[in-house]
């Protein structure tokens, strides 16, 4: 894909303040997926919806992570995909380096779920921990589903891979691996159950003073389609129906409460709001600010 005419984008970083917290969207890359992977809308309708929003014909899925800084501590929400999903992804560490942050400085990793575009950045090629000091937080339901007994199966063969990678992760991170309920990972940042995409899929809600942010994980993968059409799911959703219900509930809540959101697959810079209009929901990205 790269040729002499290719101009590399500037680093994928964007910061926002949430009360006393500084939250930085750290991009891991972007990857096209076939329109056929979307569930509940015919591929040609998907392509029409994308064209109407000036997007390429194949849905392009942004992959992102969030660095949450508070009082000198650093929590990374998800870790991108490293080299597990191709050369257009795996930019997390490079982008963190631009911030002056090295893996050794990450105190905690809060995972939204165990899919490879979220947990894939945690082990290097030799199977060692990329983040040597980080305490890892994952929901009890997520651990139970992937690692609780018989490995789950699916038509695409993804579950077997997730099961094997997740068991390796749990082993390598050892006593730094913590399965949690809906509790605080650090004061002011609470795990929230958002089941459907996976059974233990999590959001992280940050609250400080009067300021709030919900990092909603994978409530949408192709937001230009799914925010206007919350009924559209993805073949990778473990429970499409539950995913739909959760997506509707969250869109309703954040638009009513005017709650700011971040999301792993929101288009960069990965922060915004959702408003209700006459035909449904609409995403309003944050205004870029040179100082926060
Ligand atoms: Zn994902």
Automatic annotation (TrEMBL):
Record domain Metallo-beta-lactamase: where: 62-265
Keyword Metal-binding listed: yes
SUPFAM superfamilies: Metallo-hydrolase/oxidoreductase (SSF56281)
Pfam families for the chain: Lactamase_B (PF00753)
InterPro entries: MBL_superfamily_lactonases (IPR051013), Metallo-B-lactamas (IPR001279), RibonucZ/Hydroxyglut_hydro (IPR036866)
Keyword entries, A-Z: Hydrolase, Metal-binding, Zinc
Keyword Metal-binding: yes
A molecular function GO annotation: hydrolase activity
Family as reported in the entry's similarity comment: Belongs to the metallo-beta-lactamase superfamily.
Name of this chain's protein: MBL fold metallo-hydrolase
